[in-house]
Amino acid sequence: MKVLIVGSGGREHAIAASVAKSNRVDKIYCAPGNAGIGKIAECVPIGAMEFDKLTAFAKENDIDFTIVGMDDPLVGGIVDAFEKEGLKVFGPRKNAAILEGSKAFSKDLMKKYNIPTAGYETFDDPKKALAYLETVKMPIVLKADGLALGKGVLICNTLEEAKAGVKEIMEDKKFGAAGNHMVVEEFMTGREVSVLSFVDGKSIQIMSSAQDHKRAKDGDQGLNTGGMGTFSPSPFYTKEVDAFCKEHIYQKTVDAMAAEGREFKGVIFFGLMLTEEGPKVLEYNARFGDPEAQVVLPRMKNDIIDVMEACVDGTLDQLTLEFEDNAAVCVVLASDGYPVSYEKGFEITGEENFEGKDGYYCFHAGTALKDGKVVTNGGRVLGITAKGNDLKEARANAYKATEWISFANKYMRHDIGKAIDEA
Q1: Structure letter (DSSP) for residue 224
Q2: Listed residues 50, 66, 98: the one ending a domain
Q3: Same domain, 335 and 409
Q4: Within a domain: 112
Q5: pLDDT by residue (tens digit) across 26-41?
Q6: SS3 per residue for 86-143
Q7: Tens of pLDDT along 128-150?
Q8: Number of domains in the chain
Q9: 244: enclosing H helix or E strand
Q10: Quick check: 266 pLDDT over 80?
């Protein structure tokens, strides 16, 4: 098979690495890709939102299967564009990707189908939002309705912070058009867990659990980012939690989307909060998490092409997902100053230290090739992932491997997976 992957981040590198293990695939392309993906795939200089160019490339190069990694093209309708040309593609259609594309839609869906989530109200008028804030308890959560690179959520501890947040999202348009509508949500307390799943429109198969670290600085301080590291599995995702979610959340979400005429095929990412009243949905994503993919996919035993084709073909119930009985931790190496401002273009050295070392991975996110050298080209630069027999060993291995890589302005959190010690 010839496979095309759409995207350019650490998630797409993890997908490409899994595809490269399939004995059914002999050629991988990635558009636009990055310096690391370029070592296992042919990178194509086409942007993820250039649907016409992507479909034309797929037809001209006899691509058998396309995998869309990113949220923007999915929400924008890339799957519909490929299907219109008779091309086989993995991911939800536009009318299903709205599950991530509109937080107001997903909250309304959960309310209608009795899927546990936090109480909320939605607003398209900042004056009404401000008036509502006067009536609720703090802290409160403000969410830009649309896509905001994982950063459109504000946790406000005081009324003053909440009012400033409304101004930021709805009036100053910090997240652009994503802030035309806003969700004001009850603040939930508990442990967060990420659960990725494969879906074929009717049935759902759950992958191994994971836990992300969103804040920029140690101790969950600083600004929200796209994710500074993650670990899998989560020790807090117990058999009891799994049983509850299977009964009240997972299949109910798939069935709800089908009932709404929005059949979902692809990956649903369940962001869960384990509250005292039981698990509740924090958010849905319509694709693999980043960096969750970097710890979940290396542990999956199945051929990823078999699983993804089953999602497209509606035969997922004929497969059983299998994961290694071990653990993985990913530590993101970022550019100092991320997520606000940072410099690019610094040479990255030391990647050769990963060669021939089983269970260690250097996933590229914000990198580029310049004059034959790999250089930094984004806020999140690399995802250093390592496996271990258990989470503590995986964590130690991952932090050891971060020392193998050097670049100017290298920054990371030093407490990824520290919650493991409390489990």
Answers
A1: E
A2: 98
A3: yes
A4: no
A5: 999 999 999 999 999 9
A6: CCCEECCCHHHHHHHHCHHHHHHHHHHCCCCECCEEEECCHHHHHHHHCCCCCCEEEE
A7: 999 999 999 999 999 999 887 76
A8: 4
A9: helix 239-245
A10: yes
CATH of the domain at 23: 3.40.50.20
In a domain, 307, yes or no: yes
CA gap 214, 196 in Å, rounded: 17
The average confidence (pLDDT) of the chain is 95
Segment holding 194, helix H or strand E: strand 191-200
* Strand positions, DSSP E, 264-402: 265-275, 278-285, 327-335, 360-364, 367-370, 373-376, 380-388
Strands of the sheet containing 2-7, edge to edge, are: 42-43, 27-32, 2-7, 65-68, 89-90
Q: Is residue 100 a contact partner of residue 284, using CB atoms and an 8 Å limit?
A: yes
297 and 341 in a single domain? The answer is no
- Same domain? For 290 and 308 the reply is yes
> What would the pLDDT profile of 289-326 be if each residue is shown by its tens digit?
999 999 999 999 999 999 999 999 999 999 999 999 99
Q: Residue 139 is part of which domain span?
A: 119-186
- For residues 251-270, average pLDDT: 98
pLDDT surpassing 60 at residue 423: no
Asked if 295 and 231 count as a contact pair (C-beta separation under 8 A), the reply is: yes
